[in-house]
Predict the structure.
Amino acid sequence: MKPIVDPSIFYWMSVADDVIFVAIAGAVITTIITIIIATYIALEACDLDDCWKEFRKRKRFFVPIIIIDVFLIIVAVFVPSKNTIIEMIVAKSVTPDAITNGVQSVKETVDYIIQKIAELK
């Protein structure tokens, strides 16, 4: 018998939440590191002209960190959470036919229960 929901989906649901956490943590850490280094550069070169010269010299260091930050934020935004995956599975499974079959089953069950109660009296 084929399962209604592929069991590997449960694994991916737990992995998705971990990926989101790691992406957010990585973005926060790299942002903090960038701020600390930029502050150090600014404090090290007190003159405004020197400060901009230092930033321009170290631009090659800041660009990859900013790219990594943007990538991690995109990952955190677009990887669905566990709840979103569950909602997508439910939305995929709920069809007009499934609702009709469910309503019919409930009606049959209620009729059966009423019939059994009537037999007891």
Notes: The mean pLDDT is 82. The radius of gyration is 29 Å. The chain is about 85% helix and 0% strand. Residues 17 and 81 are 6 Å apart (CA to CA).
